[in-house]
Write a structure and sequence with these properties.
Bound molecules: coenzyme A
Strand content: under 5%
GO cellular component, one term: cytosol
Strand order of the largest sheet: 1-2-3
Pathway: Carbohydrate metabolism; tricarboxylic acid cycle
Helix content: 55-70%
Structural class: mainly alpha
Shape: globular
Catalytic activity: oxaloacetate + acetyl-CoA + H2O = citrate + CoA + H(+)
GO molecular function, one term: citrate synthase activity
Largest sheet: 3 strands, antiparallel
Number of helices: 16
Distance between the termini: 34 Å
InterPro entries: 2-MeCitrate/Citrate_synth_II, Citrate_synth-like_lrg_a-sub, Citrate_synth-like_sm_a-sub, Citrate_synthase, Citrate_synthase_AS, Citrate_synthase_bac-typ, Citrate_synthase_sf
């Protein structure tokens, strides 16, 4: 018996597909490179959730609805103000996503209007809640969404209280596209299990956020930045890598359960990082990262260990002024599109998840009275 359900299909899905040997990722059959070049995050979210690229009118309506729902209720803001400023932003996001359900709970899963409103509200509210907590924990009031700015630019505006550079905003939008969906990973599985009970979508997203928060899943890009800071200089890279290999310690940002070549998202993110540095300034950690990739490829490439999505994303987020402990909430902001697509897909042919187990405990044990226990 091997724990972890490795290789066990948990659902049939037409949302995304990974070919780990060839390094291919497709959303609804469209290659990720194509979407990164030509699409926007909201258009990609529409594609994932409704299965087809929207027409011009459908996209305009969807964008309008999301923009109209970006403000969060003042009682949610007040609730968030009561959270400890030292709390992890992922815990805040999980609690806030669940709280949305208190305000909009009238569950009506057979009603397409309910489904549409829930999708729009979750996509629209999560960036506002993420940015609000970053300001609140510093003692500032949250910034109202900017009506003239699109999804990505508005998030950066709410975070920094100033309109972002358009190149930086576009780069951030592409980061959201790259993180929007990735087949049956732990948080998506968690979303589908929760969805299968026919609970509301806010509970589905809250459970997925809780699952994404763990260091084995969404947290690796934070660790990459900490590792690059610890290494400090390109000359320290080789000894660091050799030491990790010798100790059998995992090098953060490398290796993947599915990809045995360089993650296609890492390639795109590396190009974005270079574009961003050219625009807003060089980052010495990029030199360390490049040297690291060279040494790891030389030493571990033959075992199929290459850079994954988390290796370059942290460098991009850092340059965009996003705090390290907000990297995973930003990941969640993007992945909510994938979770909602899986929620909708799960509802179509729902069957509650009820796996079996391999029992390895005792049988026919006696109940010993408390006074007689040793
Ligand atoms: N650094 C060094 N060695 C690594 C490694 C890494 N990042 N990832 C895998 N390996 C090695 C293991 O030590 C193991 O070696 P062995 O066969 O000599 O014992 C072999 O490769 C297989 O490792 P295993 O842990 O079974 O692979 P996996 O498919 O379960 O691991 C990850 C996938 C992602 C969990 C793993 O690569 C990892 O922990 N990477 C670092 C964290 C990270 O970046 N996570 C984000 C993923 S998107």
């Amino acid at each position: 018996f091997k724990p972890g359900l490795d290789g066990v299909p948990a659902a049939q899905s037409s949302i995304s597909n990974v070919d780990g040997q060839k390094g291919i990722l497709e959303y609804r059959g469209i290659r990720i490179e194509e979407l990164a070049k030509k699409s926007t995050f909201l258009e990609t979210a529409y594609l994932l959730i409704w299965g087809e690229l929207p027409s011009k009118e459908e996209l305009a309506l969807f964008e309008y609805e999301v923009h109209q729902n970006r403000r969060i209720k003042y009682r949610i803001r007040d609730m968030m103000k009561c959270f400890p400023e030292s709390g992890h932003p992922m815990d805040v996001l999980q609690a806030s996503a669940a709280a949305l359900g208190l305000f909009y709970s009238r569950r009506d899963l057979n009603n397409p209007v309910y489904i549409r409103n829930a999708v729009v509200r979750l996509l629209a509210s999560i960036p506002t809640m993420v940015a609000a907590f970053e300001l609140m924990r510093r003692g500032d009031d949250p910034v109202r969404p900017h009506d003239d700015l699109d999804y990505a630019a508005n998030f950066l505006y709410m975070l920094h209280e100033e309109k972002p550079d358009p190149v930086a905003a576009r780069i951030f939008d592409v980061c959201l596209i790259l993180h929007a969906e990735h087949t049956m990973n732990a948080s998506t599985f968690s979303a589908r299990v929760t969805a299968s009970t026919l609970t509301d979508p806010y509970a589905v997203v809250a459970s997925a956020v809780g699952t994404l928060g763990g260091p084995l899943h969404g947290g690796a890009n934070e660790e990459v930045i900490r590792m690059l800071e610890e290494i400090g200089s390109t000359k320290n890279v080789r000894p660091y890598v050799l030491d990790c290999i010798q100790r059998k310690a995992k090098i953060m940002g490398f290796g993947h359960r599915v990809y045995k070549v360089k993650d296609p998202r890492a390639k795109i993110l590396q190009n974005l990082a270079e574009e961003l540095f050219a625009k807003v300034g060089y980052d010495k950690y990029y030199d360390i990262a490049q040297e690291m990739e060279r040494v790891v490829e030389e030493k571990l490439g033959p075992k199929g260990i290459y850079a994954n999505v988390d290796f370059y994303s942290g460098l991009v987020y850092r340059k965009l002024g996003i705090s390290t402990d907000f990297f995973t909430p930003v990941f969640a902001m993007a992945r909510v599109a994938g979770w909602l697509a899986h929620w909708k897909e799960q509802l179509v042919q729902n069957r509650i998840f009820r796996p079996s187990q391999v029992y390895n405990g005792r049988h026919n044990a006696n109940y010993v009275h408390i006074t007689e226990r040793t």
